[in-house]
Structure formats: structure tokens, C-alpha cells
Amino acid sequence: MKSQLSTKHREENKKKRDKKRGTQPRIDNGCVNSRAMREMFRSYVEMLVSTALDPDMIQALEDTDDELYLPPMRKIDSLLNDQKKLLLRRISMSAQHQEALHTYPNMTADPLESGAVWVHLGGEGYSRKTLSRVKKSVAKQQDMKLSMETCRIYSLYHSLHHYKYHTFLHCKREQAAEDPGQEEVVQQCMANQAWLEDLFSSFVELLSLSAKA
């Protein structure tokens, strides 16, 4: 079933590419809540839902220089990276701390009586390229003590860096909630407007909070 789904998705992608070739909207960074951005974000999520069904999806898109899903993915990835760069200008982050934030996809924090925050980083490693989990020879968890303000910036930076992966996990859970025997599972996920709106609202909020940090 998986190979049939993968083949069907790629055939549908080609049809959509042929239909929409050259029509990807140009987005101004300040218009993250625009209709064009919503359409781009929808394509981004659809690509991630498809990747949840076919782990080779992103690589296949790049191998074929896809014109339907690659532009939205690259644009949103670029927006997230731009916000990360802005945050790095506002705080002095050591290379060791940055590497830890990059390595671990999960972050929790416990406030201390002193007013500082004890931050815990953990979670399984994954490939930034395919979003599939990979085994890495690193400690299961890394902790660091930060000021409350530094923790706030670190948390935003961490959320931006791992946004694609965590959104992929949301898509994977949504896809799993559908009937696994349905070849139209992607369409069913994308028909859930409330779910899509929640994802988009969270995306806009993250960019907004990062811009104001």
C-alpha cells in the first residue's frame, strides 16, 4: 500500500505542477498573514503530510526539481532561518549552546528560586534533510542554567530551528488518525480546515514573537 500511495502522490504532484507551473506567489516577509502565505503554508503542510506517508518524498521532490512543493518549502524554511539570524543578533549564544539547541528537538524549562531557569534538552535525533529519525552518539539529555530572558530567546530559537520537524510530527499524527487503507488520506488531512488553521495560527504567532523578541 505504501508504494502505491507514493506512486499516486508523485503522479498527482506532477499533474499539479503542470497545472500551476510558474504561478507560485511571491511573498513579502511582512505579509505572513496574507492569503498568498496561507496558500504557500497549505502546500508546505501537504508536502509534510505526504512525507509522513513516504519518507523519500522530500528527496524525490529535490531530485525532480519539483515546482509545486519545493518553492513553498524553501520560502518557509528561509523565513524561519531569517528569524533565527535576527535572534542571534540580540543575544550572545555560545557555539556549545547553539549546537545543543540544534541537536535536541525537545526543550523544557523549570524555574529556579534564584530567578534563573534550568533548561532540559532531549529527544531523538533526526535528519534535517528527510525528517526521519536517526541514531546519534550523543547524551540522551543536556541541561543548562539560563537567565529567564536568555531562556525566552533560546526557546524561540529552538522552536524556529525545529519547526519543520515538529510540524511534520503533527502531520504524522493527523495522518495516522485517518483510515490507513484510504489512498486519499492526504486529501482527507488537508480537508480538516480547523487543524490547518491551528497550524497556520501557530506559525504566524511564532514568527511574530520572534520578530518582537
Automatic annotation (TrEMBL):
Region (Disordered): 1-30
InterPro entries: DNA_MethProtect_Complex, DUF4211
Stretches assigned to the DUF4211 domain: 33-113
Protein name as catalogued: Proline rich 12
Organism name: Cyprinodon variegatus
